[in-house]
Design a protein that fits this description.
With 310 residues, the protein is of the alpha+beta class. The chain has two domains: 19-159, 3-Layer(aba) Sandwich (Collagenase (Catalytic Domain)), CATH 3.40.390; 170-309, Jelly Rolls (Sandwich), CATH 2.60.120.560. It has five helices and 16 strands. It has helices at residues 2-18, 27-42, 80-84, 88-102, 138-149, and strands spanning 23-24, 54-59, 67-70, 75-79, 170-181, 185-186, 197-204, 212-217, 220-225, 233-237, 241-246, 258-265, 268-273, 276-282, 291-293, 300-309. Strand 8 (212-217) and strand 9 (220-225) form a beta hairpin. The protein starts with a helix and ends with a strand.
Length: 310
């Protein structure tokens, strides 16, 4: 009888050990993995890291691929060289994307909005699909997390803050400048005094040998390239990080005049190209008051109009 009991205990221990899950998470990735499970459980995931087998490790990926997930054994392989070049936001996006495969069993979702914003963290690159990932907007990030853990979450148009260029009321014409120069610099206004404002920066007859126009507002860069084959609208902030890019399929075409508009509305900044809305994000990504253009090889006519809004 004692032998039978001992045998049963042994079998029980073997069975128990065989069902223990193993996690191999190097310190470089641990906090991103912890964030994933924390965000997921806040949204009803009800799964802990200890419940699954999971391994993350460095390796080498070909081409533009930064990481892959083997869903057969839940191993995520991350290209070390590409990882070391990424911002914190891009690292978070990458790990959450791969855990979407390994933990949530998600496939790629290659959808985008009318303004080329990615609908999901789970965007892929099949058939050269591309979209603009809103890495630096807290509003967008909250939506991306909701969609990641629940595919039934619908995209909300409020994220894009669609707005008509003309649906505003002006209160004051603050400044008007019309100049012909190779470079434009203006640093005479403290914008914090205005609750809402609009900046129009217009390039006149710019289709010369210079096919790229850009003006900066503080730390924000807003540019257009009419002849570029992949992207011809780009917005940067946070030290030059690309906040938004558009027009992957060339849906916006420009003629000789290009007007780039930044409008502050409440706590958001809205961006327009030739009076067409293209993007919006929170004002906390913006700092600084200096307005300046790129340097052109030849003089070009540029117009600046700044208005206070209701």
């Amino acid at each position: 009888m004692k032998k039978i009991i001992a045998y049963l205990i042994f079998i029980s221990l073997v069975f128990s050990c065989s069902n223990e899950k193993e996690q191999i998470i190097p310190i470089e990735f641990s906090r991103y993995v912890d964030m994933f499970f924390e965000e997921g459980n806040q949204r009803g995931l009800n799964v802990n890291l200890s419940d699954i087998d999971l391994e993350l490790r460095f390796g080498t990926q070909s081409g533009t691929i930064a990481a892959t997930c083997s869903q057969r054994d839940n191993v995520i392989m991350i290209d070390e060289a590409k990882w070391n070049e990424m911002s914190e936001e891009k690292k978070t996006w990458l790990i959450f994307h791969e855990l979407g495969h390994c933990v949530l069993d998600r496939e790629h979702r290659n959808d985008r909005t009318n303004n080329d914003d990615c609908i999901s963290i789970m965007r892929g690159a099949e058939d050269n699909f591309d979209c603009s990932a809103n890495l630096y907007s807290s509003k967008w990030w909250d939506y991306y997390l909701d969609e990641l853990f629940d595919q039934g979450v619908l995209f909300s148009d409020r994220l894009e803050l669609f707005d008509n260029y003309y649906t505003i009321n002006l209160t004051t014409d603050v400044i008007r400048v019309d100049t012909i120069s190779k470079e434009f610099i203006f640093d005479a206004i403290e914008f914090s005094q205005y609750n809402n404002f609009r900046i129009d920066f217009e390039f006149i007859n710019w289709n010369t040998d210079n096919n790229f126009v850009l003006f900066n507002f503080g730390n924000i860069g807003f540019g257009n390239c009419d002849t570029c084959t992949d992207v011809n609208v780009q917005i940067t902030a946070n030290g030059g990080n690309v906040v938004y890019y558009q027009n992957v399929e060339g849906s916006i075409q420009f003629n000789s005049n290009v007007k780039l508009t930044i409008r502050k509305k409440g706590s958001d900044l809205l961006f327009f190209v030739n009076e067409r809305f293209v993007h919006a994000f929170e004002e906390d990504l913006w700092s600084g008051n200096k307005i300046f253009s790129k340097y052109f090889d030849e003089p070009i006519q540029m117009k600046l109009a700044i208005d206070e809004l209701e």
